[in-house]
Amino acid sequence: MQQQLDARSQEQEPAAPEKAAYAPPETDIEKKVAALWADAVRLDRVGIDDHFLEIGGQSLQAVLLLSHVQEMFGVEVQFKDFLDAPTVRKLSEHIEAALRAGAGGVRDDAEAAEEGVI
């Protein structure tokens, strides 16, 4: 009887969503985007596969983040595009594609710091 109750309770408990394993940023763009995200959500580190909203990011923070992305990379990312690319990896790919298409340039850390971007 106890085994039946245990089996039923296990069936009814929803499984906790699995958190993606930490994957560190590798490219220069990924490192800069991850740093912006970590600052926005006040975390020590952000992996390239962490979902912005799932790690505590909110829509207003996302709008500010996109403003910093535009200042740092010279690339405008629409909010709807950000929602389609809510990880550092996907946003970095979006930025890289825009840069290849000639939509801006990457600023170095010193230049960005002078302007208060980082």
Structure description:
This protein has 118 residues and is mainly alpha-helical. The protein has a single domain (23-114), classed as Non-ribosomal Peptide Synthetase Peptidyl Carrier Protein, Chain A. 55% of the residues lie in helices and 0% in strands. It is built from 6 helices and no strands. The radius of gyration is 19 Å and the shape is globular.
Which features does this protein show?
Non-ribosomal Peptide Synthetase Peptidyl Carrier Protein, Chain A; 6 helices; 118 residues
Give a short overview.
The chain is mainly alpha-helical. It has one domain: Orthogonal Bundle (Non-ribosomal Peptide Synthetase Peptidyl Carrier Protein, Chain A), CATH 1.10.1200. 55% of the residues lie in helices and 0% in strands.
Topology overview:
Layout: H1 2-12, H2 28-41, H3 59-73, H4 79-84, H5 88-100, H6 109-114
Helix pairs in contact: 2-3, 2-5
* Biggest β-sheet description: none
Question: How many β-strand stretches?
Answer: 0
Within the CATH hierarchy, at the fold level, what is the topology?
Non-ribosomal Peptide Synthetase Peptidyl Carrier Protein, Chain A
Name of the CATH first level: Mainly Alpha
Mean pLDDT: 81
The low-confidence parts are 13-17
Percent strand equals: under 5%
The global form is globular
Indicate the percent of residues in helices.
55-70%
The value of Rg in angstroms is: 19 Å
How far apart are the first and last residues' alpha carbons, in Å?
61 Å
DSSP helix count?
6
String of helices and strands: HHHHHH
Protein structure class: mainly alpha
